Amino acid sequence: MDTQVLIAGAGPVGLMLAAELRLRGIDVLVVDPLLEPVPYSKAFGLHPRSIETVQLRGLVERFEERGGFPGSGRTGGTAGRSPIALAHFAGIRTIRLDRLRTRYPRLLASGQAAIEAVLAERAVELGAKIRRGAAVAGVTQDEDGVTVETDGPDGQRVFRAAYLVGCDGGRSAVRRLAGFAFPGTDPTITGRLADVHVPALLEDPGMGWHRTAGGVVQITPFRVLTVEFDGPPADRAAPMTEREMTDSIRRVVGREVELPATPQWLSRFTDNTRLADRYRRGRVLLAGDAAHVHSPFGGQGLNLGVQDAVNLGWKLAATVTGRAPEGLLDTYESERRPVAARVLHNTRAQVALMNPDPRLTPLREMFTELMELEPVNRHLGNMVSALEVRYDLAGPHPLTGGFLPDLTVKTADGERPAGDLFHAGRPVLLDLTDGTAVREAARGWTGRVDVVTAAPTGTPPATALLVRPDGYVAWAGDDETGLREALARWFGPEARA
What are phi and psi of 89, to 5 degrees? Predict the structure, then answer.
């Protein structure tokens, strides 16, 4: 074997997965066709659930320090610390993140390029190997592993790995070569963007999202984005040009607007919406856009993929080392695929609400009114930020299946957020009431589960919590039998003296 896990794709998802696997000592090789990271950012910002997730690994400050938006003059320093408390749905920017129940009721302002830089730094620190200029050209698997052929400037290479994970984007070579089906709906829109400062548009129609007779336009100090509802581009492979962008601005805004400078970046997107029929075929798995694509509205794609990686990492590591209980790796698909289906559903709804057809205007106006109602606003906020995600983990306590509650705890090392207990990426049995019986029940999992006795600063939400490495509660309460069952289900059978 050249490596235990080969990851195709050095974007945020592949790099997050590499770091997660290295936390558990797995040998990881990441291959990517690009010789250098892309300096431009398709996506911007980490949502509340993603911030909670990276806080488990102690990475929030790194993202804040490296944050900001390239081309905006807001990069590095305190740019990523600026709270963004409003989010949008279909360009209606009234979702109040600051009213949601989370330690991080905001967006973390960071472009995709900065996010990739932080995660690449982290993965390499932990010992991951990254090989650039290597495009996946062949995939063959057998009972013992996967053979991966790559092409690049240095010629052809063949790698052998125990498992292969395709994190190589919406046009995934791994997905195609490994035989995954990718059903969905064809695109109906063409979106175009230019990273450029346009004072004329900042003045009229002004900052933010605008629905016009010709489509939709979003104006920021560093980017102009247009959406037209006339089908996909005639030739997606053709390079995007300034003239194409200015023509689209004219059609959507209704007047000629010249770009005052050459854009730093030009790109197109559509609402092509697809979901892989499965996330695993034998020793080949998919994560991120390789498993699901959709329109970018709401900025959910990058966040969805990063959370895929954290869900998959500890399960794949346990499988590689032979410590996984039966069926553990299959829970990656059963948990994450429905979450992706939900995102595909709400992004389709956003496209429908943005359509400039005047017959749909009453629907949009009524939806805008509904968004002012607090329960509706909170519901949409929880949905686009993934705070609504919970898994069916079986257990009577209401915390079971949800994410680690926002707790500040006192331990022998002092007072800190409970999320800080997960920097090593290990499961934690958090004893909140000094329950000897609970700790005794977990004795058979010593070495596999960290047992931490801590006093919460407020009323404890439960006697004890068993929390998986991805931050989700596998068991809560004081039922010792239920605890043993949960420990065996997720972390293998009890060790007998």
Answer: -135, 115
What is the CA angle 84-87-92, rounded to 5? 140
Instruction: Report the C-alpha gap between 123 and 117 in whole angstroms.
Output: 10
pLDDT tens for 411-427 read: 888 899 999 999 999 99
pLDDT, residue 66, reads 83
- Binned at pLDDT 50, 70 and 90, residue 81 comes out as low
Is the residue at 139 inside a domain? yes
The answer on 177 and 76 residing in a single domain is yes
**pLDDT tens-digit series, residues 150-206:** 999 989 999 999 999 999 999 999 999 999 999 999 999 999 999 999 999 999 999
- Output the six-digit token pair for 259: 């770009």
Q: Is pTM, for the whole model, over 0.90? A: yes
The CA distance from 229 to 247, in Å, is 15
Which residue, 244, 269, 294, sits at the end of a domain?
A: 269
| Residue 240 to residue 226: CA distance in whole angstroms | 13
**Is residue 37 predicted with pLDDT exceeding 60?**
yes
Query: Do 258 and 301 belong to one domain?
Result: no
How far, in Å, CA of 437 to CA of 238, rounded? 66
For the chain, the residue count is 497
Look at residue 229 and tell me whether its pLDDT is greater than 80. yes
- Long-range contacts of residues 330-337, Cβ cutoff 8 Å, at least 24 apart: 330/280, 332/279, 332/280, 332/285, 333/278, 333/279, 333/280, 335/311, 335/391, 336/279, 336/291, 336/307, 336/308, 336/311, 336/312, 337/275, 337/276, 337/278, 337/279, 337/291
- Let me know if residue 203 belongs to a domain: yes
DSSP 289: G
CB neighbour list of residue 426: distance below 8 Å, 6 or more residues apart: 449, 450, 469
**Which of these three, 269, 293, 317, is where a domain ends?**
269
Q: Are residues 414 and 335 in the same domain?
A: no
CA gap 364, 362 in Å, rounded:
5
Do 163 and 57 lie in one domain? The reply is: yes
Tell whether 39 and 135 lie within a shared domain: yes
Are residue 161 and residue 253 in the same domain, yes or no? Answer: no
Domain residues for the domain of 136 are 3-184+273-384
To which residue do tokens 């066709």 refer? 33
In angstroms, rounded to a whole number, what is the distance separating the alpha carbons of residues 286 and 167? 6
CATH number of the domain enclosing 232: 3.30.70.2450
How far apart CA 495 and CA 497 sit, in angstroms, is 7
Instruction: Specify the 3-state DSSP secondary structure of 236.
Output: coil
Same domain, 238 and 283: no
Confidence of residue 458 (pLDDT cuts 50, 70, 90): confident
Give me the pLDDT at residue 237, please.
85
